[in-house]
Amino acid sequence: MSETAEIEPLGKRERTKVANRQAILVAARRVFAQMGYEAASVRDIIRGTDLASGTFYNYFRSKEEVFGAIADDSAARFKPLLRAARERATSFEEYLRGAFEAYFGFIADENELEGRPIDERRPHVRSDTPEMIAVYDEVRDGLEAAIARGMAPRIDADYLACACIGIAQEVGTAMLRRSPPDIKAAARFAVGFILKGLDGAPRKG
Amino acid sequence: MSETAEIEPLGKRERTKVANRQAILVAARRVFAQMGYEAASVRDIIRGTDLASGTFYNYFRSKEEVFGAIADDSAARFKPLLRAARERATSFEEYLRGAFEAYFGFIADENELEGRPIDERRPHVRSDTPEMIAVYDEVRDGLEAAIARGMAPRIDADYLACACIGIAQEVGTAMLRRSPPDIKAAARFAVGFILKGLDGAPRKG
DNA sequence: TTAAAAATTGACGCATCGTCATTTTTGTGG
DNA sequence: CCACAAAAATGACGATGCGTCAATTTTTAA
């Protein structure tokens, strides 16, 4: 194998290319958080770097594409956490708990930047970018695997995955609105709810 | 009481005001569906009516506000359906089934306009309009009432409402992607899942 | 009939859009 | 070290959309 990890043979050209792309993404994250996604313009983003306006278009075609790249990046960083939760788990319940704690912890970290309210900067997490589709697939695969092993009943894995993602999103957002956000408690609620429905969710108080 | 329902004493001024506002909303729905929310401009919307560009700003401040009005309108039309489901039901399960069938039927109707994929018709941020908050409150009230009557366990009503809404949204979107969308089946899935968790969801096939 | 009030209109100044010819930077061979 | 080609950055440009506003038309009320 001559494909060993390409340690660091990056010329200056490649390095600045990576650096510029990253600078744009960092500026975009900040701008989206500060003024909200809708209000932000490509010019606002590029002003947050030391690049010229035309340079933006060497890296992205539009604001939407930048948003997609950020979402893709988040999804790519989250996916291994999800995978790890699956591999670490020895039971379905453990898998679910690991996955939800990973997700709730992740969004708690991601939203620590000060600025506009959460709702105005938050991606509408649909099966959008390749990495986000990969996350959805990871969720569904994990559930299908559990079903195949008899750890979960044989139900519609697509709807099930959607239900879990919906719960994760909405309960996650609700958690962020509470201060301080209690990650374990939120995960406990979600896991109990998914496993047993109303009867399984932790009693209040 | 001299405040009796104001039957129809609308002058021409009031009538055209209502008509123009409605014309803008109708055009906006069509434009959002056809070219996608992001790509649409205020000019695109106003071109879909016989009004001048400046007139738009007598009714709305921005494209976002138009979307908010559409969302608000949808929520306002949906809320009574939800309320009716609650009043009609004689058990918690019946309430849930009625609510989900109402919601899934509603979004199936709402998205019958041909055009861009569902996901592109909305902004990438979540807007919480007054009527949408009212719908959320209706959901939570319904659940709290059930809890108070001992028809459901005493769990965190806020998280529960969020979980139900998340399920409704994600499973609803997934349902729309299938053709033809099977409203009853989707509702059966959601209700079973909420009541009993994995064990309660209908088996596949 | 007429004057005040309200609403509509479209042109205006300004900002952002995406492009592209030009300039600057980087990699390569003599 | 220099020169030359490829690659990338730059900012000015025409086009388009933005939100405003003085002028105009329509409606209401006296």
Series of H and E elements of chain A: HHHHHHHHH
What is the CATH domain class of the largest domain in chain A? Mainly Alpha
Largest interface: A-B, 49 and 46 residues
Which quaternary structure do these chains form? Answer: homodimer
Q: What is the total number of structural domains of chain A?
A: 2
Q: What's the alpha carbon Rg of chain A, rounded to whole Å? A: 20 Å
Shape of chain A: elongated
| Uncertain stretches of chain A | 1-7, 122-127
> Which bin fits the share of residues in helices of chain A?
55-70%
What share of the residues of chain A does DSSP label as strand, in percent? under 5%
Residue-averaged pLDDT of chain A: 82
CATH level-3 fold name of the largest domain in chain A: Tetracycline Repressor, domain 2
Largest sheet of chain A: none
Q: Distance between termini of chain A?
A: 59 Å
CATH architecture of the largest domain in chain A: Orthogonal Bundle
- Counted by DSSP, the helix tally of chain A is 9
Structural class of chain A: mainly alpha
Number of strands of chain A: 0
